[in-house]
Structures are given as structure tokens and as C-alpha cells.
Design brief:
Elements lengths: L8 E4 L6 H12 L4 E4 L5 E2 L7 E2 L10 E4 L7 H16 L3 E3 L2 H8 L1 H10 L7 E4 L2 H10 L4 E3 L11 E3 L2 H13 L4 E5 L15 E8 L2 E9 L15 E4 L4 H13 L4 E9 L4 E8 L5 H6 L4 H14 L1
Parallel strand pairs: 1-2, 1-5, 5-6
Antiparallel strand pairs: 3-4, 7-10, 8-9, 8-10, 11-12, 11-14, 12-13, 14-15
Helix pairs in contact: 1-9, 3-4, 5-6
The structure holds adenosine-5'-diphosphate (ADP) and magnesium ion.
Length: 311
């Protein structure tokens, strides 16, 4: 590991022993860029002092830029503080890949959906609300078959489907009592577009780096009934060479969130017989992708970082 001096890159991570983070650090080493991994909670911000940042091992002030891979999971106040740290790094002239604003938008399903819709990108009808009355009304407004998602969530965790009105009422009431915010989305049954044959639910993940397509895959569920197609939920990656229409949609989605590195999830809907963008991730993994696609995502990230730093 780098000793904290002469560093040319920082990798901001939620966990130091994550295998993809370690692969990214090795990709930096292979490119002869001295990089160190760090967790946001180990960084202190200094104001009107000799140092603008403090870290036990690493001289943050001398690092020109950072790849942001995660800020970890913690309390709400600490999560806000970790985001503040990203904004503070930018305010001190550091290059962040992805930037603070883009990271904040992508981590938040409400802000992501708003940004996609504002950019004219097709995304499922969704109601986000704090008020119980709005939540209760959302069920029928969204067609009586909805997904309820955590606003801050990933890997499909915590998302559930509700198709019964009485059940929806009970769930909304309990969630309201527990202080939740409602993110309620119409369910889109899957279909096969021309060029794809699948017998189980699937979606498509496209990784966009610096405005170009770095890799893509189909994620197909092992079961007819399992509609959550995250690799984490057991979906199986399949090779996929997306047509220009899907590539362009993915590029536009990444641009809408201002992401340099983006993992765009797209579903071909049986309802609309067209693609919808489900979400855009700011720290897409590549373990599943690497099984079916020969793109070297860590190398692409490092190359993009190098170009940004040289500007
Ligand atoms: N509106 C929807 N209709 C049908 N399936 C969906 C919809 N939204 C999400 N899914 C399924 O659930 C998975 C996880 O949803 P997503 O919004 O990407 O959340 P996460 O951040 O947890 O990955 C998607 O990959 C897809 O398989
Ligand atoms: Mg997803």
C-alpha cells in the first residue's frame, strides 16, 4: 500500500477490503499512478488552518484527485457529513470522479428519477411523498401493481412488490408510523425486444465511462417469478452487444445525472414495448460483467482519471 506521500490519486471507498476496490488500486499501480484507498470517515476537514484535510496516514492536501467508489453505510447525519467531505474536496480544487453532485444524485432514487424525467428520458411512473394521503392515492394512480423502494438503496435490497390494495394500505400506514418516505413506482412486466431471447425476467446493465460505452450485459433471473434482476439477487449475467438505441439511451442517462462513470439499468417493458431506464448507479461493480464481457473496467476508470487530471 502507498505510504501516503507523493500520491497521485485517492480512491474513496466504503470498505477497504472490497475485492473490486482492491482491483481498482492494482489497476492504478499497473498504470504507474500512485494511489491510496481511504474511507470518508477517516478524513477530517480543516478550515482556516495549515491543512485543509487531515488523515492519519495520508496527506490528502497533496492528492490532485479522487475516484469515489462509495461512502459506506451509517447514520443519516454521518452520511450527510461524508457527502460534505466530497463537496469540500471539490471546493479545494480536487478532481472527483464521479463529482459530488452527481454522486449525491445517483445515490438518491428520488433525485435520479427527477433528473431522468427532466431530461426527457423514459423512466417508470413514480410518486415520491412524505404524506400518507399521497402514498395511499399512489397505489391506484400507478395501476394497482407497484414497487416500493428505499430512496437510498442498492442491489435490489428492500424493494418489494404490492398488487393488493388492502395490503398496500397496511404497508403504507406502518411505513408512515415508522417515519419512512414513500418511493412508489409502477411495475413494468418484462418483454423481449427484437434481438434478445430470454425465458425469465431480465434487464440490461450498460456501463458508461467518460461518455463512451465501456461494457454491457443482460442480467437474467434464474426463476420465472423472480423479477429482481440484480446480480446480488441471483440473476445470471449474459453477454450482450447493445444496439445503438440502447447505447444512446445509456449515454443520455449518464449525462442527465452528470456522471463520468455510470451503471445504467434498462428494462424492455411489455407495457410500452419500449425501453425504460430504471436507475443509474454511480459506482457500478464489474464482477458480473467481467464474466461475460472482456472490457477491463478498472483500467478504463484509471485511464479516464488520468485524462481528467491532465486537463
Ligand atoms: N419499475 C420496475 N418494474 C419492473 N422491475 C423493476 C422496476 N424497478 C426495478 N425493477 C427490478 O428491480 C431491480 C432493482 O431495482 P433498482 O431500481 O435498480 O434498485 P437497486 O438500486 O436496488 O438496484 C432492477 O434491476 C429490476 O430487475
Ligand atoms: Mg439497480
Amino acid at each position: 500500500m502507498a505510504n501516503g506521500t507523493g500520491l497521485e490519486a485517492g480512491i474513496i471507498v466504503g470498505s477497504l477490503d472490497n475485492s473490486e476496490n482492491i482491483q481498482l488500486q492494482r489497476a492504478f499501480e499497473r498504470a504507474n499512478i500512485k494511489a491510496a484507498m481511504m474511507m470518508p470517515e477517516d478524513i477530517a476537514i480543516g478550515i482556516n488552518l495549515n491543512s485543509t484535510f487531515y488523515h492519519d496516514r495520508i496527506s490528502i492536501d497533496s492528492i490532485p484527485g479522487f475516484v469515489v467508489r462509495g461512502i459506506g453505510f451509517t447514520t443519516m447525519t454521518r452520511s450527510f457529513y461524508r457527502m460534505d467531505t466530497l463537496y469540500a474536496l471539490e471546493a479545494r480544487g480536487k478532481v472527483l470522479v464521479n463529482g459530488a453532485r452527481a454522486t449525491e444524485t445517483a445515490m438518491n432514487k428520488c433525485l435520479t428519477s427527477v433528473a431522468l424525467d427532466a431530461a426527457g428520458i423514459s423512466t417508470p411512473a413514480t410518486i415520491v411523498a412524505e404524506n400518507l394521503k399521497h402514498a395511499l392515492a399512489s397505489f391506484e394512480k400507478l395501476g394497482g401493481d407497484v414497487l416500493i423502494k428505499p430512496v437510498y438503496g442498492s442491489q435490489g435490497i428492500g424493494i418489494f412488490r404490492v398488487q393488493d390494495k388492502g395490503y398496500a394500505e397496511n404497508v403504507f400506514l406502518e411505513m408512515f408510523r415508522n417515519g419512512h418516505v414513500f418511493y412508489v413506482q409502477e411495475f413494468h412486466p418484462w418483454a423481449c425486444p427484437p434481438g434478445i431471447t430470454a425465458s425469465h425476467p431480465f434487464d440490461v446493465r450498460v456501463v458508461v465511462i467518460g461518455g463512451g460505452i465501456a461494457g454491457a450485459m443482460i442480467r437474467e433471473s434464474p426463476l420465472e417469478t423472480a423479477w429482481k434482476t440484480n446480480v446480488h439477487q441471483g440473476a445470471v449475467p449474459r453477454a450482450y452487444d447493445p444496439p445503438e438505441e440502447v447505447r444512446e439511451l445509456a449515454r443520455r442517462a449518464a449525462r442527465a445525472i452528470h456522471l463520468d462513470i455510470a451503471g445504467v439499468d434498462l428494462l424492455f417493458s411489455a407495457k410500452t414495448q419500449d425501453w425504460v431506464v430504471l436507475e443509474v448507479n454511480c459506482a457500478p461493480g464489474w464482477t458480473g460483467l467481467a464474466k461475460v464481457c472482456d472490457a477491463d473496467i478498472p483500467a478504463r476508470i484509471v485511464e479516464f482519471y488520468r485524462q481528467r487530471i491532465r486537463k
